[in-house]
Recover the amino acids of this structure.
């Protein structure tokens, strides 16, 4: 790890950049190695989690906390558009397009850092399906299958 830090520091210095000691931390990902990493003789602090581009990364590569946070942010974005979902003047197609551009983008921001497990994909799909059912004004006890839901809203399931 120290060797990699040294090579990054050398390449950075060649470009006129310096590594900021106080802002730098070490996240050990799936390793038993506990050797310290130093910059200018000072040990860097170990971190259990850190935030990168708004996504929470942990030492085990898990994404559950991050997915939960983004679902919460997407839910807030969805609720801010409540007047649109209740509007009688907009077509379902327009509402779904607004959902895709304003809610789904919030939900999937930073998804490239997630470890995509079946449970994470299922959580995302459940949130999307709930939103689409509300847009189509399908309330309990009325039900439709997910396939019919995706057909009516011209959506592709997240698994694909």
């Amino acid at each position: 790890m120290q060797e990699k830090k040294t090579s990054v520091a050398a390449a950075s210095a060649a470009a006129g950049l310096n590594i900021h000691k106080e802002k730098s931390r070490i996240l050990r990902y799936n390793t038993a190695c506990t050797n310290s990493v130093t910059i200018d003789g000072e040990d860097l602090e170990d971190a259990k989690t850190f935030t990168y581009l708004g996504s929470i990364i942990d030492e085990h590569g898990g994404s559950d906390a991050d997915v939960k946070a983004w679902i919460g942010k997407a839910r807030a974005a969805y609720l801010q558009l409540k007047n649109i979902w209740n509007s009688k003047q907009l077509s379902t197609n327009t509402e779904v397009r607004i959902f895709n551009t304003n809610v789904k983008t919030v939900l999937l921001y930073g998804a490239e850092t997630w470890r995509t497990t079946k449970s994470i994909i299922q959580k995302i799909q459940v949130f999307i399906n709930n939103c689409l059912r509300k847009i189509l004004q399908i309330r309990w006890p009325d039900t439709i299958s997910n396939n019919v839901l995706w057909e009516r809203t011209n959506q592709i399931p997240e698994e694909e």
User: Anything to note?
Assistant: The longest helix spans residues 118-135. DSSP finds six helices and six strands in the chain. The two ends are 37 Å apart (CA to CA).
